[in-house]
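Reopening: ATP-dependent zinc metalloprotease FtsH still failing for me.
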Amino acid sequence: MSNMLKNVGLVAAFAVAVHLIMKTDASEQTTRPSAEHKPYTQFIDMALRGDFEEIELRGQDGREVRALDSNGTLIVSRIPVNENIMNRLYGERVDVVDLSARDKPQEAGFMSRLFLTLLPAALLIGFMMFMMRGGMKGPGGGGGGGGLLGGKSMVKKFNARDCDVRFEDVAGIDEAKAELMEMVDFLKSPGKYTRLGAKIPRGALLVGPPGTGKTLMAKAVAGEAGVPFLSQSGSEFVEMFVGRGAARVRELFEEAKKSAPCIIFIDEIDAVGRQRGGGVGGGNDEREQTLNQLLVEMDGFDGTEGIIILAATNRADILDAALKRPGRFDRQVHVGLPDLSGRVRILQTHLRNKPIAPDVDVKVIARGVPGFSGADLANLANEAALFAARRGDNAITQADFEGAADRIMMGAERKTMIMTEQEKRLTAYHEAGHALCALRAPGADPIHKATIIPRGGALGMVMQLPEGDRVSLTRQQAHARLAVCYGGRVAEEMVFGADKVTTGASGDIQSATAMARAMVEEWGLSDKAGAVLYASSRQEQAMGATGRSRSISEVTSLMLDQEIRELTDLGKVMAEQILTDYRGELENIAEALLKYETLSGSEIKIVAQGGTLTRDPSQPPPDETPKGPGTFGATPANDTGNDMRPPKPL
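Support: Ran it again with your exact input. Result attached.
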């Protein structure tokens, strides 16, 4: 409080001094009556009539004339260039006074000149001192005090009573949970380990895709151990002011030592722990200084203080090697996407406090969404509750979950969009091409659903059913995906001609290109490119890494591009062959889509063989999410060709 009053007093004194200086050297301001401007000839006539007693010559050039008439009105005029008013009024009963010197710019006083000279330097020095004073406060220069440089502490501290998350609240990642239980046991019973000379790992790095529960797991560790939880994001260490990142690292560890035993959690550590040497500033880069300070602080305790560091990232491959070595982050705990049983338990956790209708089968829902993370499943449960609320029901039904899954995977229905008959027909044949390739391409995932109802940014789509939680992909399955991707474009060309193809296949082409690129550069599924990893080299070349020798030549880069083109062309040729051989089935599926708009997988098989459907076109297709083990539902996994998740809807 005293510091605040002192600062206010200094500011007030400075303001008063500025006011006095400016007031001392200010020009005198005279009160003038309202002026009336007259032409020069009329002004002279009034002077000759005796309306003025005195005329003043004003202005910097002395050519402005002013006079008060008999009514006290100020009359103002301008003397022409070739006119001499002195001669014109010589001998008349009016005095002409030259006051133009008053209007010429006056040289500023000494105090004003001195003030204007020193003011910029004084402001700059004061601003720097103000920031430095704020930055010096706090432990170890950590900026815990005020000031622009110091700012508010970014450490979020949760006491033991505030950490209400337990391991029972974390479902679907049992392997990661088991690894971290040992750390909890050490915090609860350290003597069990120290009497044998054992040291608990100082840190654990939680690695996994977004939304898999890494942050929740870290909170569960603190909750189970009953110790404080200190959390900070990696991006909060890096600031525009030099030295602020390192100061915040010191502040975090000083707070941890005061709160020991405790858990330190750094979320998205790749923001500060990225591999050194690639920055513009080299070793003096602010981010690298912050990382260096983090490494020093992690070496500053021997593990007996009861401080455990947890960090989360989904890019462990770009972290600095010094950060991952034993003695710092000793363990890397993989927190992956949940399997079927994990998805069931996660859904059960999120449905504990929601009213569920008797027809809801959690296992059926879980089978229909492989590839969903814990965050995706939480969103699914929430969307299903919103569906029930819109309907005005008191419980969430199985249909609500099906609608929510479709909304998440395919987007919301665009019910107000009006399509012409030609657009519907073209969309039907496009989706029929995808569906037929999914039926006939060897190794393709079974088809689950096809629709020409606009959803999200697409006019229609086809969903496929992967046979189980896939962990790998065969060469045959990869080529089948390429054929399915090009099925829509090939169908448009065959039915409507090459000049009538549309831009609707842009997403399909993007997916096929990504798949072919992964086959060539990552998976070794190209005979010409061989079993060599090119992806990282291509990324370095594209990023133009400074100071690094290129590990891929222009000739190799050209060969990779040619091989990717050959694979995509092969996928298109495969699609052309399938649609040519089964042209009749293409027509049958397209006509059925025009009539029913949405077809299930079994219905597509029936109509492809020339069969007829018995349901009314106004009724939705039956839900065919498999209820037995071994087969699972569709997912919109954002397939970029470099993971094993199911293909996205086409």
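The domain at 340-409 is CATH 1.10.8.60 (Helicase, Ruva Protein; domain 3). If you still see a failure, please send the error message rather than a screenshot.
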